[in-house]
C-alpha cells in the first residue's frame, strides 16, 4: 500500500537535517552547548532572547493543534504559510521534473516557490461564472495527471477571488490523485467562511495537507506564525528540512497570549463584525455606478470590478485608503481587492467612490 512518504523526494526520505543544540533532549543548570552569550542584551528587558528558542514550541504547538482539530504530531509551525509552501515544494518536487499545480487568479507564492525550485508550473484557471470564480475540478485532475503534478494547491477561500472550495471537491481531487500528488488546501481565510476545514479529511486521505495562519483573523501578521497540518510522517520530514530555529521566542509568546480563551472570544466577535460588514459593503458597492461587479466572498475582502479601475484606485488613494491593485492578475484587468476594515473605514471607501461618481 502506498504511503504519503512515497511522494517525498527520494534523497530526502532519510535526510536527518541539522541537529541543533536544542534538538538534544538534555537538561541542566548551566547551558554551555550552543555558544550563546552568558549575558542578556541591554535591550532585552525580559532576558528571554539570549538563548536559542525551542524549534517547535510545545505549548504553542499544542494550542494550535487544539484550535485546528489535529494532534501536535500532525502540525508544524513555520514562519507564516509562506514557509510551509516553500518547504512542501522543496521536500516533494525534484527540480525540473515534478510539477506544481495552482489555479489563477490566486495567491502568488505557489508560483514563486515553484519557480525557485525549478518545478514545472501547471495553471488551471478558475472559472468566472454566476457564482463567482470557481475551480474546474475535473480539469485540475486531468492537468495534474497529464503534467505529473506532485503538489496541487487549492486556496479555500481563494485569494483574491473569495470563494471556498467544498470538502466534497477537495476529497474528489485527493481521491483521484492518491499516490501521485499531495493536495494542499490553503485555509488562510477559513475563520471567515462557513465551510468546514479540510483537516476533517486527514483521517481518510494521507495525501492532503492544510495550511493555516494567525496573520488574518487572529491579527498577528507581524508575528509570522503559520502551520502546516498533515500526516505525522510527512510533518517529521518537513521539520528535518526546516531551518534550525524558525520560531522566535517573542513571537511564540505573543501567539500564545493571542490564543488565550479571552483573546479567542474577542477574535470571534471581530470575525462576526467583518462578516456583517462584508455583506453591507458588498450591497453598497454594487449600488455604485462606478462598479461593474462585486464578487461574493467567504473571506475578509471583496474583489470588485470597476468601469475605470485606475480612477477608483486613485480616488481611494487620494483619501488615504490603500487597496490591492489586481489588474495584472489573470482575468482581473479591471479589478481591485478591498480588505474589510472597521465600519468607519468601510464608510470612507464608500464615500470616496461616491465622490468619484459625482465628479464624473
Ordered list of secondary-structure elements with their pairings:
Elements: H1 58-68, E1 75-79, H2 80-92, E2 99-102, H3 109-116, E3 121-123, E4 127-129, E5 132-134, H4 137-147, E6 149-155, H5 167-176, E7 182-186, E8 208-213, E9 225-229, H6 232-241, H7 249-258, H8 261-286, E10 291-294, E11 301-306, H9 309-318, E12 324-325, E13 335-339, H10 343-359
Parallel strand pairs: 2-3, 2-6, 6-7, 7-8
Antiparallel strand pairs: 1-9, 4-5, 8-9, 10-11, 11-13, 12-13
Domain tally: 2
Q: How helical, in percent, are the residues?
A: 25-40%
Structural class by helix and strand composition: alpha/beta
Poorly predicted segments? none
Mean of all residue-level pLDDT scores: 95
According to CATH, the fold-level topology of the largest domain is: Aspartate Aminotransferase, domain 2
Q: How would the global form be characterised? A: globular
CATH class of the largest domain: Alpha Beta
Radius of gyration, in Å, reads 22 Å
Query: The biggest beta sheet, please?
Result: 7 strands, mixed
CATH architecture of the largest domain: 3-Layer(aba) Sandwich
Tell me how many strands there are: 13
Strand line-up across the major sheet: 1-9-8-7-6-2-3
Sheet-strand content, in percent, reads 15-25%
CATH superfamily of the largest domain: Type I PLP-dependent aspartate aminotransferase-like (Major domain)
N-C termini distance: 66 Å
> What is the chain-wise order of helices and strands?
HEHEHEEEHEHEEEHHHEEHEEH
How many helical elements?
Answer: 10
Amino acid at each position: 500500500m502506498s504511503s504519503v512518504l512515497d511522494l517525498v523526494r527520494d534523497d530526502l526520505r532519510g535526510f536527518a537535517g541539522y541537529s541543533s543544540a536544542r534538538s538534544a533532549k538534555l537538561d541542566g543548570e548551566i547551558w554551555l552547548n550552543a555558544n550563546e552569550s552568558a549575558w542578556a542584551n541591554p535591550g532585552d528587558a525580559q532576558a528571554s532572547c539570549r538563548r536559542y528558542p525551542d524549534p517547535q514550541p510545545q505549548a504553542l504547538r499544542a494550542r494550535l493543534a487544539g484550535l485546528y482539530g489535529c494532534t501536535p504530531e500532525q502540525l508544524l509551525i513555520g514562519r507564516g504559510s509562506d514557509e510551509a509552501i516553500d518547504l512542501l515544494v522543496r521536500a516533494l518536487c525534484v527540480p525540473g521534473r515534478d510539477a506544481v499545480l495552482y489555479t489563477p487568479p490566486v495567491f502568488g507564492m505557489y508560483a514563486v516557490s515553484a519557480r525557485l525550485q525549478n518545478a514545472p508550473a501547471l495553471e488551471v484557471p478558475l472559472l468566472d461564472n454566476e457564482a463567482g470564480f470557481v475551480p474546474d475540478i475535473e480539469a485540475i485532475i486531468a492537468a495534474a495527471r497529464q503534467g505529473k503534478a506532485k503538489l496541487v494547491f487549492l486556496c479555500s477561500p481563494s485569494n483574491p477571488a473569495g470563494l471556498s472550495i467544498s470538502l466534497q471537491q477537495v476529497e474528489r481531487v485527493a481521491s483521484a490523485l492518491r499516490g501521485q500528488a499531495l493536495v494542499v488546501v490553503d485555509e488562510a481565510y477559513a475563520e471567515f467562511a462557513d465551510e468546514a476545514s479540510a483537516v476533517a479529511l486527514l483521517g481518510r486521505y494521507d495525501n492532503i495537507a492544510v495550511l493555516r495562519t494567525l496573520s488574518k483573523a487572529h491579527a498577528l501578521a507581524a508575528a509570522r506564525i503559520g502551520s502546516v497540518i498533515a500526516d505525522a510522517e510527512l510533518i517529521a520530514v518537513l521539520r528535518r528540512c526546516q531551518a534550525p530555529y524558525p520560531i522566535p521566542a517573542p513571537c511564540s509568546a505573543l501567539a500564545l497570549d493571542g490564543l488565550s480563551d479571552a483573546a479567542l472570544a474577542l477574535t470571534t466577535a471581530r470575525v462576526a463584525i467583518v462578516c456583517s460588514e462584508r455583506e453591507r459593503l458588498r450591497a453598497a458597492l454594487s449600488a455604485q455606478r462606478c462598479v461593474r461587479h462585486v464578487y461574493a466572498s467567504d473571506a475578509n475582502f471583496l474583489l470588485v470590478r470597476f468601469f475605470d479601475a485606475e480612477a477608483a484606485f486613485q480616488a481611494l488613494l487620494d483619501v488615504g485608503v490603500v487597496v490591492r491593485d489586481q489588474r495584472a492578475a489573470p482575468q482581473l484587468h479591471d479589478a481591485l481587492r478591498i480588505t474589510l476594515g472597521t465600519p468607519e473605514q468601510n464608510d470612507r471607501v464608500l464615500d470616496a467612490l461616491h465622490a468619484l461618481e459625482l465628479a464624473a
